[in-house]
Specification:
This protein is of the alpha/beta class and about 950 residues long. Helices cover about 30% and strands about 15% of the residues.
């Protein structure tokens, strides 16, 4: 029942246009489980029913998460429990036709999926429904033979088959000839008014199927009969979903019969689009004026020729809503569409930004507008109403609408086209926004006349080195300028004439070294982003930019050449930071060897403590004691209300970084990060920061023997943790019946070059779940580690999705037989139930993956390299039902044997094996294989019956065809 409800809702826009390839994969997996359950029901095979149920629940929960964005939980629960919608539908013929349209749309979507062969439609109230389906042009194009048969008087499967054969024009004596004809054709058989008590209904047409053809059977019934053994069941009453959404959002006004009729017409024009249905209902809530309802019907039904149907519906709904907002509210909506952060923002911050843009006069007026937009479903509130966000679907449609609304000559979009020459001067004259990023410009016009230009995007033009001195001369109202990722070395004199400039981005311009003092003339500047540049020092004039809310700086070390050029010996002058009282984000990157930074830190820290509005702070603090200065009694900073990136400790340069580029990026993406370098002991300041940190990188700590020494109670919020070259650490976690659980939030744990590490977990299980959210565990170069999973650890890792073990020479099995000896309760059927990716490299003693213990039923990726003693694999420890790729050396694979038991037979996995070349970088090869796998997934678009939803992976490298030997 639940999977049929999910399939039904996924047929509605906008869900039916999102991630079609992924959805088809999901449907294939659901049908596979359904087929296994059916085999169990009819005792064809022995299967593990609890395991199937658990697997189905996981699959359904993935889609339900997306559905809940559009459908309230209570409606979803009622539908899954077999209940009809709570609001009674009006007796309108138009609504009946509307519901039938939704049913036909679902049938046409799912009938194209090869694995769906039998569909049952229940609660049909139109005797001609199958006739209408039969005559549809998509059906006629898909099937060369469409047969409709009335089976109300057919008590057995044989009687139904006889009627079908009779309809084909054959007699019972010619049954074999008729079946041969069906096997050779694409057919659709429509069975009208069937009765579910017919035994062995799942055997209907068993002799007719041919996987090379498109062949379907659709059964229709006027009643609802649960438990009919079909691939998909469609209940008509469940297609009242959009009516229920409309009813509960529009309110009591639908009790009027006149408005009720108009509402049905509006609903049909929405075509079941879940978002548009709610938007229109919210806009019409409490409206009793019939003329407004008629106007709504005209607007939602307008059909511009250039838009796709779904785009047209959303655009029309938004046009109707905007037409009933005041001018101030419309401008606020437009601002949110273009500038509101994807993850949302604090409501007070948004109101302040509206006021700075002169969109509202008072905070009270802004509060009213926010509430109005939330009521209209244009904004959503969260965090107890303290924050707001705009759904991405609404944002995209609004941006499209506003760009269509603008005169095309005012918006010049030439981004990402590989252009080598910028537009001519004429293109600049009327434009108020120019998007020229990611091209190949080496020069720009000398002096374009841009009296209306407000926004200029030039980032990503890597060949752009010089901008003419007068380029910005005629841009009097420019407000946003993006020059990031260019090769410019200096700013032209005309840049400092941009007195209206509010946001200036110069990120990742590595040749840019000097910020002129004239920057202080840009008094309206709110954002100055120089992250990734190589400026030598910050001019004191920056202290005049008192409207700055975001300041990001990157400094290079002062060299002898810079000193000869009379550059200041001060990296940031005193009283610059303390003048910028509006700052909400401050980020300072420095070269750790720059002595000027160490000299200036004392007063910089004090000035930072004066910034009462600060929400984000990034600093390098060579001394731990400086942390204490940030939180002393005179400070205005509150860790619990901030995002931060702190690097604490003396930095030592080294030739090779132990942390991979991917891991470094992941670390930087975390909300609150602490990198602690070359530390000794457990300073109080570090403990205080840890209480609020979500990411920790502990690099070359000199004395600590266990991560637990930092205090388990201080790391409850930790989600990401990397340890590198901590030579004294012998175990990561020491748990001793901790009542609150250990690391309840940790999702990622990575270890590098831990030369004395002997265990991950030491002690008994805690009373509360520990490591319950850990998804990735990566172990690199731990020469003394001989055991990964104790029983206490293994039973906690129910969320682990990826395990990497590399260069750990003492490991002979990731799970040893000692695990079972340690167990004190009944063994689980599967351990590591969510593990999808397992990589085992450079493990000379590895002889078994898990010693025969059943692990990883969801495994998709299995990678081996330089594991010479791994000669036999147990099927109990390598689940192959979802396995998509195995990598390893070709000669190792050819010699590998499978252990055969009475319960498991060795499969042939040659089709998914990809050989690893010995003299090519392993990491590079694995990345290429993974990319190829993802590309294969994206290409999996079935076009006929013989297609599969996820094709077997055919890698360019080729595969071995040798059958695996079986070890008795």
């Amino acid at each position: 029942m639940k999977k049929d409800v999910v399939c039904l809702i996924l047929s509605y826009p906008p869900l039916n246009s999102e991630n079609n390839g992924t959805r088809r994969d999901w449907i294939r997996d659901v049908l596979r489980i359904t087929q296994k359950a059916r085999e169990a029901l009819y005792r064809q095979k022995k299967v593990n029913v609890p395991e199937l149920s658990s697997e189905m629940d996981k699959l359904l929960s993935r889609q339900i998460h997306d559905i809940k964005v559009h459908v309230p939980s209570d409606i979803l629960v009622n539908m899954c429990n077999g209940l009809s919608p709570g609001y009674q539908a009006p007796p309108e013929a138009m609504l009946d036709r509307c519901i039938d349209d939704f049913m036909i749309r679902q049938i046409l979507q799912y009938i194209q999926i090869p694995e769906i062969q039998r569909i049952v439609i229940s609660e049909v109230n139109d005797k001609n429904f199958l006739v209408r389906l039969k005559n549809l042009s998509p059906i006629r194009r898909m099937f060369c033979r469409v047969i409709r048969v009335d089976v109300r008087f057919c008590p057995t499967v044989k009687d139904i088959e006889d009627r079908i054969i009779e309809q084909l024009g054959f007699s019972n004596s010619d049954r074999g000839e008729a079946e041969q004809l069906l096997r050779s054709q694409n057919f659709l058989i429509l069975l009208d008014d069937f009765h579910p008590w017919i035994e062995n209904l799942h055997h209907l047409g068993n002799g007719w199927w041919n996987s090379n053809n498109t062949q379907k059977i659709v059964l229709a019934s006027f009643q609802f009969y649960p438990g009919v053994p079909m691939d998909l069941e469609i209940r008509r009453n469940h297609h009242l979903l959009s009516w229920e959404l409309f009813f509960r959002n529009v309110g009591e006004v639908l009790h009027s019969s006149t408005i009720q009729k108009l509402a049905v017409h509006v609903l049909r024009q929405c075509s079941g689009h879940l978002r548009a249905t709610v938007l229109m209902a919210r806009a019409l809530k409490g409206v009793k004026n019939v003329r407004i309802w008629q106007h709504a019907l005209r607007v939602i039904g307008f059909q511009p020729t250039l838009l796709h149907v779904q785009d047209r519906i959303m655009i029309n709904a938004l046009i109707f809503i905007l037409g009933h907002l005041g001018s101030a509210a419309i401008e606020c909506v437009k601002y949110c569409a273009f500038y509101l952060e994807m993850e949302g923002t604090d409501k007070v911050d948004l109101l302040e930004r509206w006021m700075k843009e002169d969109l509202i006069g008072t905070l009270g007026k802004g509060e009213q507008i926010v509430q109005h937009l939330v009521d209209a479903h244009l904004l959503e509130s969260f965090a107890n109403g303290e924050s707001v966000q705009m759904q991405n679907e609404i944002r995209k449609e609004l941006v499209k609408f506003y760009k269509v609304e603008m005169n095309p000559t005012l918006l010049v979009e030439l981004d990402g086209r590989g252009l080598t020459e910028a537009p001519e001067n004429e293109a600049w004259e009327e434009a108020n926004e120019m998007s020229l990023m990611n091209n190949k410009f080496s020069k720009l016009p000398h002096n374009p006349n841009c009296p209306k230009l407000r926004v200029l995007f030039l980032q990503g033009n890597h060949r752009l080195r010089v901008i003419s001195s007068s380029f910005f001369q005629c841009m009097p109202i420019l407000q946003i300028l993006h020059l990031s990722e260019t090769r410019i070395k200096f700013l032209p004199p005309s840049f400092f004439k941009l007195v209206q400039l509010r946001k200036f981005f110069l990120r990742s311009c590595e040749l840019f070294m000097e910020l002129p003092t004239e920057i202080g003339e840009l008094c309206h500047l709110e954002v100055l982003d120089l992250e990734g540049t190589e400026i030598i020092n910050l001019p004191a004039a920056v202290g005049k930019l008192t409207n700055l809310t975001r300041l990001k700086l990157s400094f290079c070390a002062q060299t002898s050449h810079c000193r000869k050029d009379n550059h200041s010996n001060t990296i940031i002058p005193q009283n610059v930071i303390s003048n910028l009282l509006q700052l909400k984000q401050l980020s300072i990157d420095v070269n750790p060897e720059d002595e000027r930074w160490n000299a200036a830190l004392k007063y910089i820290v004090k000035e930072v403590c004066c910034l009462k509005r600060l929400l984000f702070l990034k600093l390098h603090l060579p001394e731990v004691l400086l942390l204490n200065d940030l939180w002393d009694v005179a400070s205005s900073l509150y860790l619990s209300c901030m995002r931060f990136r702190f690097i604490v400790g003396r930095h030592q340069k080294r030739i090779i970084s132990r942390l991979s580029h991917e891991s470094a990026i992941r670390f930087e993406e975390q909300e609150t990060c602490l990198k602690y370098l070359n530390g000794e002991g457990i300073p109080t300041g570090i403990k205080v920061v840890l209480q609020h940190a979500t990411a920790l990188f502990l690099d070359r700590h000199l004395t600590v023997t266990s991560l637990s020494e930092f205090g388990i109670e201080n790391m409850k919020n930790l989600k990401f943790c990397v340890l590198s070259e901590c030579d004294e650490i012998q175990t990561i976690l020491e748990a001793d019946n901790d009542r609150n659980g250990v690391f309840p939030s940790l999702a990622y744990l990575e270890l590098h070059y831990m030369k004395n590490l002997r265990s991950i977990w030491k002690g008994q299980s805690s009373q509360m779940p520990s490591l319950s959210n850990l998804k990735v565990l990566a172990l690199h170069t731990c020469p003394k580690l001989d055991k990964i999973f104790t029983f206490s650890l293994l039973i906690e890792l129910n969320s682990l999705e990826e395990l990497v073990v590399e260069d750990c020479p003492e490991i002979n099995s990731i799970v040893t037989q000692e695990v079972l000896a340690e167990g004190v309760g009944p063994p689980q059927e599967w351990y590591l139930p969510k593990l999808k990716k397992l990589s085992l490299h450079y493990l000379p003693k590895l002889a078994s993956i898990s010693g025969g213990l059943a692990i990883a039923p969801e495994l998709e990726w299995l990678s081996f390299y330089d594991c010479p003693n791994l000669k036999i694999l147990h099927l109990e420890e390598v689940s192959t039902c979802k396995l998509k790729v195995i990598t390893g050396e070709a000669d190792w694979w050819n010699e590998l044997k499978w252990y055969e038991s009475e319960l498991f037979q060795p499969p042939n996995l040659d089709d998914i094996f990809v050989p690893i070349e010995r003299y090519t970088d392993l990491r590079t090869q694995l990345v290429e294989i993974n990319d190829q796998l993802q590309a294969q997934k994206q290409k999996a678009e079935p076009s006929h019956q013989s297609d599969v939803l996820v094709p077997s992976i055919e890698f360019e490298a080729g595969t071995s065809s040798k059958q695996k030997q079986v070890a008795a």
